[in-house]
Design a protein that fits this description.
single chain; alpha/beta; Aspartate Aminotransferase, domain 2; seven-stranded mixed β-sheet; 16 helices; 13 strands
Length: 407
């Protein structure tokens, strides 16, 4: 039987009558998956594959596997991995709970914020039109257009262009209004852009006057937690945040939320539907449960307490390095909206400690444990928010070793 025949006949299956309800949530049986003779759960897979574990002493970066998932996320993944789920039902119900937490009309879990950009754009193009959904990215007729400020063009707008649209660059609100035409399907605002010629409020106002949906990419823009609510309140129709950054959900998960009709259209362009543009961007059930759990924890935590813990880490490292001659340790909080949390800049007299910041970065990365740090001009840049508690002293000790060795 073909998969589409199975899907077509799902409603005919008497699922509720086949298995007693109480057995659905019983402890997982000990099967080959849990008692495999081929795999020892105590195996060091890093060592087996020859991959070096890295301490991330900077910021969340996809190539460094994002952030470390919260214990509650790992528990959500493990506790839901033993049973199957109808993915349509799970996405709908998890999305409804997430929407309630974020106080929006609708929400869904995506495979990262980049996937959300593709799905949100597709939703604005197709609505619930099945012919358009099947045709993307090669929609018949004139090419559809997405408005962006010229200073907002960035690498990830390729995820938007994947749907077949053309990016139309504008500068200023008047030029934006003039650029909107019958082929305009969406206006995209990149929240972490260095410069904006149009404010958030002006951007939304122009688009609403012309009945064009607005989408804001705020992938890395928590903390503060208030940002999860800020942009919908301004009036953006669609918002995306990464799930695998400071919310600390699965690295491959993201959030897309906003207008109900657009979220429903985004779902139609996504897996588990078999043919749309978002099919290759599927999320599994564990990622959906994990993202839901991560958001619950993030919204409920004491953010002021966490911020103070980060500041305490910078003080600990500063105090640890006090005995290093000429070293100056600064606690810094970046300006802007992305990756705004405490970090450190370390500088020293290089005539007395004969090592550059670039060489210090290399030695930290090449050492054991391997520590990924950065540099800003000729200062060593250290992030503290992604360190496990036991790694704070390790980082401080390794920095001290590298610097004192160069004296």
């Amino acid at each position: 039987m073909k998969r589409r025949d199975v899907l077509r006949n799902l409603s005919l299956l008497p699922l509720a009558g086949v298995i007693p309800v109480e057995s659905l949530h019983a402890a997982p049986p000990k099967t080959a998956a849990t008692t495999s003779p081929y795999f020892d759960p105590k195996t060091d897979l890093f060592a087996e594959l020859g991959v070096t574990p890295i301490i991330n002493a900077l910021v969340t970066m996809t190539f460094l596997s994002g952030s470390l998932m919260l214990p509650e996320v790992l528990e959500a993944i493990n506790s839901t991995s033993h049973d199957f789920a109808n993915m349509y039902d799970l996405q709908d119900k998890a999305g409804a709970k997430i929407a309630a937490m974020l106080k929006v009309e609708a929400a869904m879990v995506t495979s990262g914020a980049a996937c959300a950009l593709t799905l949100g754009t597709a939703a604005c193009i197709t609505g619930n039109d099945q012919q358009k959904i099947k045709a993307l990215p090669n929609l018949p007729g004139p090419q559809k257009e997405v408005i962006m400020q010229k200073t907002h063009r960035y690498l990830f707008d390729q995820a938007v262009r994947t749907t077949g649209v053309k990016i139309v660059e504008v500068t200023g609100a008047a030029e934006m209004e003039k650029a909107i035409n019958e082929n305009t399907v969406m206006a995209l605002f990149f929240n972490a852009a260095d410069e904006s010629s149009i404010t958030h409020e002006e951007f939304v106002a122009v688009a609403k006057r012309r009945k064009v949906p607005t989408f804001i990419d705020a992938a890395a823009d928590v903390p503060p937690v208030e940002n999860l609510f800020k942009y919908q309140q301004i009036g953006f129709d669609l918002v995306t945040f990464s799930g695998g950054k400071m919310i600390r959900g699965p690295q491959s998960a993201g959030l897309l939320f906003g207008r109900k009709d657009l979220i429903e259209a985004a779902k139609l362009n996504h897996s588990p539907h078999e043919s749309p543009i978002g099919r290759p961007m599927k999320v599994n059930k564990e990622e959906i449960f994990g993202m839901y759990a991560a958001l619950k924890v993030y919204l409920q935590k004491d953010h002021k307490k966490e911020w103070q813990e980060w500041l305490d880490r910078t003080k600990f490292i500063s105090d640890y390095l006090k005995s290093v001659p000429t070293l100056v340790a600064e606690t810094v909080i970046p300006e802007g909206v992305a990756n705004v949390f405490p970090g450190m800049l370390l500088s020293w007299d290089q005539t007395k400690i004969k090592i550059s910041a670039a060489e210090a970065v290399k030695q930290l990365l090449d050492g054991r444990p391997s520590i990924f740090a950065g540099r800003k001009q000729d200062k060593l840049s250290i992030g503290v928010v992604l360190l496990r508690p036991d790694q704070v002293e390790i980082v401080a000790r390794r920095i001290k070793e590298v610097l004192t060795k160069a004296m």
